[in-house]
Amino acid sequence: MSSSKGKIITIVGSGLIGRSWAMVFLSGGYKVKIYDNQPGQAAKAIMEIRKQLEELQQSHMLRGSLSATEQLALLSSHDDLALALEGAFFVQESIFEDLEAKQSVFKALETHVGEGVVLSSSTSCLMPSNVFSRVQNRTRCIVSHPVNPPYYVRLVELVPHPETLPTVVDLAYSLMTEVGQAPVRLNKEIDGFALNRVQYAIIAESWRLVKDGIISVKDIDLVMSEGLGMRYAFIGPMETMHLNAPEGLEDYLQRYRQGIRRVLATFGPIPEFAGEEAAAINKEIGELIPGDQEHLSARRERRDQLLMGLSKLKK
């Protein structure tokens, strides 16, 4: 806790991701300032954070060694950007996913902070070279992409700009580790980063299998939730291969590489995710989970409760 005492992190944007980041950093004992350019929105965010922290404390799932009251005492809201940035050593941008808007934000941020302040973006798929293109000193810029919801899913992808200094990546890695996240380093930028590239590959093949009448929406989701997902909650694809043959990865490849290549060669083109196929799949998932806000909110709450329980189990 000594390393975080008195240190300030500023969150720019008070939506779902911004609030989640605030909760994560508060759990590590950091002072957190939330800024939003819409007057009153940051103050509303604090009310929501208060509610969530108190609920987490009641369910014994509050992260960190501080109580909800102690964490909330470290939190403040701001409608003035300069005041919000005063004293910060790390800035986490968390606005909506729009390239021009993010570029404008970072251009403004640079005018209010010193050279040593790290500028970090929460973007899920925009390339750092584009997000930070209007920043003069890009050596202190980095993408810290969380997985929604960050409080329960700990992964953070750290993606550097081509000019980012290694010391900045190290600082971000240490910070994320200290507050209980699970950071991974990408050595260079790539469209979609790592998580979404893997996720999109799964989505594409799942979509093709449903579209081609091989399997239902319900059952392809079970393939993941009751099959692959059971493994992947604790070990990744490389370790899975390593453990799935008597003598490890080399043995696995000897046994299965030809079959893997044969099956991969049968994969179809990238789906359109539109038109009749999208309408049919939407109809099928809608019969399982209606698309109105009441049903979707209930399923999201269920998701978060399950993730909370899994997070507790993984500890």
From TrEMBL:
The keyword NAD applies. InterPro entries: 3-OHacyl-CoA_DH, 3-OHacyl-CoA_DH_CS, 3-OHacyl-CoA_DH_NAD-bd, 3HC_DH_C, 6-PGluconate_DH-like_C_sf, 6PGD_dom2, NAD(P)-bd_dom_sf. It is found in: Cytoplasm. Residues 9-188 form the 3-hydroxyacyl-CoA dehydrogenase NAD binding domain. One of its GO terms (biological process) is fatty acid metabolic process. It is an enzyme of class 1 (oxidoreductase). The record marks H145 as: Important for catalytic activity. GO terms for molecular function: L-gulonate 3-dehydrogenase activity; NAD+ binding. GO terms for cellular component: cytoplasm. PROSITE patterns: 3HCDH. Its EC number is 1.1.1.45. Residues 192-255 form the 3-hydroxyacyl-CoA dehydrogenase C-terminal domain. It comes from the Eukaryota. Keywords: Cytoplasm, NAD, Oxidoreductase, Phosphoprotein. SUPFAM superfamilies: 6-phosphogluconate dehydrogenase C-terminal domain-like (SSF48179), NAD(P)-binding Rossmann-fold domains (SSF51735). Belongs to the 3-hydroxyacyl-CoA dehydrogenase family. Homodimer. This is L-gulonate 3-dehydrogenase. The gene is CRYL1.
